[in-house]
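TASK: fixed-backbone design
INPUT:
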């Protein structure tokens, strides 16, 4: 159905490490021998993970074991095009260190050669665009918000726009069949699918004849030339770590619920902090009675990260105060908004920074009315659906600026969900807009580095 809009192997690593010990004395991860005869064991293991299709988190955690000098030397020794280089380069950048050479872009290789010439700002949309969404079935309501956000951005653009067709992924054959129909119809770029299962099924094919911007992160990484975009907990954990580092935190106590979103954000936070020389001291459940033993550990606590809902956060605040932590920088995930809305009750949350979308946090987005105004007239932009509406807006934006984002690791576009860039693996990286509570009401945080 469619409708159209006109126009890891560890044993040999252990043997290698033992050989180093026997031949040259006791070697450490931080101080390899002065003669560089091959990749450091940690870098070799990272290479195995990259080739096995592992995600960024385990690789980044592995590389966090290396000191600055070793990391820089190993990065410089890798040949151009080695898929491990970009992982080492990102670790160097996270530590504020220079790169031996720019990030390699060859692993991704996005090709927009069939599109008309780009405008000066990099705008170069497809010629014919297919969008894969579950227009029927259980995800149809969520898909409607994504679709309407996409169309809002599409019609707000006054320059050349592609012909667009929507394909239902809930028909026979699922997302893969919908993709095949889009390819057969002559689309030169495809957005979607939306479900993680659909993304995995499509990406398992490997090389794809028409490039894809998937609207989720699956377990299978994007094949070369393709990308994936998601409002993921991992992005929030990474952004929170960066904000905490800006605020001078090096020892962070985490209070986290046991759900999957909390776990994923905490894992990403831990990895990003480790890459910048910081550490998660403990992860405790929000139901804990006394936080004082964790606050009084040797070295102290610089900040607290909350991966909990607003209702749990309100109950936590007196406990944080009793442990002497209420005056520390407090950063949370977007889960903090769940269970809030009463200014009287929410005053206790004042000062906590949490991530959100540019549009839903009250900031201006070109081509869109304020989120509060849109909610009055557009059901698919109302309440929690507003995030998906903004997500759909950004899907259009990414399709039009894909080449620009692919050409430089520093390139970004300002979207409705945040600042958007693409890493060398084809994953869209989102820096969210930060907000806080003031007098029990949410307000934009003027400076991410400020309190």
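OUTPUT:
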């Amino acid at each position: 159905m469619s409708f159209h809009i006109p126009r890891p192997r560890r044993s040999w690593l252990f043997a290698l490490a033992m050989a180093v010990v026997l031949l040259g004395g006791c070697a450490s991860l931080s101080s390899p021998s002065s003669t560089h005869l091959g990749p450091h064991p940690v870098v070799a293991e990272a290479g195995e993970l990259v080739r096995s299709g592992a995600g960024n988190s385990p690789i980044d955690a592995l590389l966090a074991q290396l000191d600055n000098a070793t990391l820089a030397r190993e990065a410089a020794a890798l040949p151009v095009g080695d898929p491990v280089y970009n992982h080492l380069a990102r670790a160097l950048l996270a530590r504020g260190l220079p790169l031996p050479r720019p990030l390699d872009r060859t692993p991704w290789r996005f090709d927009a050669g069939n599109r008309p010439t780009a405008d000066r700002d990099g705008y170069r949309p497809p010629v014919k665009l297919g969008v894969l969404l579950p227009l029927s079935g259980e995800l149809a309501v969520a898909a409607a918000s994504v679709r309407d956000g996409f169309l809002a951005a599409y019609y707000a653009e006054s320059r050349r726009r592609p012909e667009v067709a929507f394909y239902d992924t809930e028909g026979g054959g699922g997302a893969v069949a919908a993709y095949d129909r889009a390819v057969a119809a002559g689309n030169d770029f495809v957005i979607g699918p939306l479900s993680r299962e659909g993304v995995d099924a499509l990406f398992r094919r490997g090389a794809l004849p028409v490039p894809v911007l998937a609207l989720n992160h699956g377990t299978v990484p994007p094949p070369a030339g393709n990308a994936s975009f998601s409002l993921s907990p991992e992005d929030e954990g990474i952004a929170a770590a960066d904000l905490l580092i800006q605020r001078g935190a090096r020892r962070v106590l985490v209070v986290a619920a046991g759900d999957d979103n909390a776990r994923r954000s905490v894992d990403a936070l831990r990895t990003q902090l480790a890459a910048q020389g910081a550490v998660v001291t403990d992860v405790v459940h929000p139901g804990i009675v006394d936080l004082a033993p964790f606050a009084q550990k040797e070295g102290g606590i610089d900040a607290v990260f909350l991966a909990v809902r607003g209702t749990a956060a309100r109950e936590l605040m007196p406990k944080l105060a009793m442990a002497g932590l209420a005056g520390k920088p407090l950063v949370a995930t977007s889960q903090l908004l769940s269970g809030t809305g009463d200014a009287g009750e929410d005053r206790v949350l004042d000062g906590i920074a949490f991530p959100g979308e540019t549009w839903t946090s009250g900031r201006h987005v070109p081509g869109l009315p304020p989120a509060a105004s849109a909610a009055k007239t557009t059901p698919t932009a109302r309440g929690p659906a507003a995030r998906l509406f903004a997500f759909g807006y950004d899907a259009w934006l990414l399709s039009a600026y894909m080449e620009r984002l692919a050409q430089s690791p520093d390139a970004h576009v300002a979207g409705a969900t945040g600042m958007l860039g693409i890493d060398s693996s084809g994953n869209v990286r989102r820096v969210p807009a930060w907000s806080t509570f003031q007098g029990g009401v949410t307000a934009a945080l003027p400076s991410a580095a400020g309190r």
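COMMENT: The first helix runs from residue 11 to 24.
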